[in-house]
Amino acid sequence: MKNPYSTLGVQNGASESEIKKAFRDLSKKYHPDKKGGSQEKFVEISEAYSILSDPEKKGMFDRFGTIKPGSLNFDFNDIFADIGNISEFRRRSSTRYGKRKKMVPSDIRIKFRINLPDSVFGGSFKQKINRMIACEDCKSVGELVDGQKECVYCSGRGKMIFRQTPSIVFESVCSKCSGTGLLTSRCETCLGKCFLQKNETVEAKLPKNLKNGSILKIEKKGNVNYTDNEETHSGSCYFLIDFPGKEDGIEKEEANLKTAIEVELSDIFEESQVEIDVFKRKKIKFKLQHDKKISEKYILSPDFLEGNYFEIKVTPIISKNKLSEESRLDIAKCLRKNIV
Ligand SMILES: [Zn+2]
Ligand SMILES: [Zn+2]
């Protein structure tokens, strides 16, 4: 067998990148589809590269100067995938009888963080999204068929068969027509990408009393694919809502709120009214009860919570400067009397 290093024009023991570069240059030069190309030479360099790009085969050649007979089968698609995207060798998913449409997941899922007040009172919602819209011109195939002209490269067979010797046959999907057997050209609308990107701003109303992890679904704002019967289908855009568990001294658990306040002991005895400012958007008022145990919480159900509750822990305090020594002892005496 020929020395694969000299076939690729590199020195024995050349590095992986030198080998790759040499193969890339030579395969462009000798591609049978090109002017001055040569099928024979093309097969030869592909074969050399299939040995040198495979550590096992390369190792064998380096040691013994040859490789095991019969281990020379390789797939053209694999070696071209290996050297990157050369336009002549674009890899496409395709079938013999027609090109497969490229598909993307139809739904878009985005994590979306809102603030705690908005999770309680609702709000407006605006977010930029990036949608993939199936190209109408090529119906998400990325290529257009030039009439019904037969691919000259594979004579309409859709496959390339290289017979090196009676026992060594290389077969690959025709890279020119991607296996359809018809002449094609790249779709210039999507530049062969099958989809067009569309940046869009979606707007929606945030419902009230959201729980963490709620999902907001906006229909028809997902990616657009072509279905097999040539219709377009648009998925949905899902926003996974997330918000901080505490803000402004108020905590949220499920859809319930919780806070803790301190009040003067005298206000408890007088059963004063207390006002709580909920995120500066709503105020709630309630009356302190003198006969409530200190550990017992106040449970309110303001309208805006729609059936959920607001729990308030009240801690009585006595501001130092408000109490004389005499009153302090008096209070202590009274409290003891009541406890006993
Ligand atoms: Zn297109
Ligand atoms: Zn072809």
Q: What share of the residues lie within helices?
A: 10-25%
Secondary-structure element order, as H and E? Answer: HHHHHEEEHEEEEEEEEEEEEEHEEEEH
Q: How many strands, which pairing sense, and closed or not: the largest β-sheet? A: 5 strands, mixed
Main sheet: strand order: 14-15-16-20-19
Describe this structure in words.
This protein has 340 residues and is an alpha+beta fold. It is 22% helix and 34% strand. The strands form eight sheets. Strands 14-15-16-20-19 form a five-stranded mixed β-sheet. A three-stranded mixed β-sheet has the order 3-13-10, with no helix packed on it. Strands 1-2 form a two-stranded antiparallel sheet. Residues 151, 153-154, 158, 174, 176-177, 181 line the site of one zinc ion.
What are its keywords?
340 residues, alpha+beta, three-stranded mixed β-sheet, 20 strands, binds zinc ion
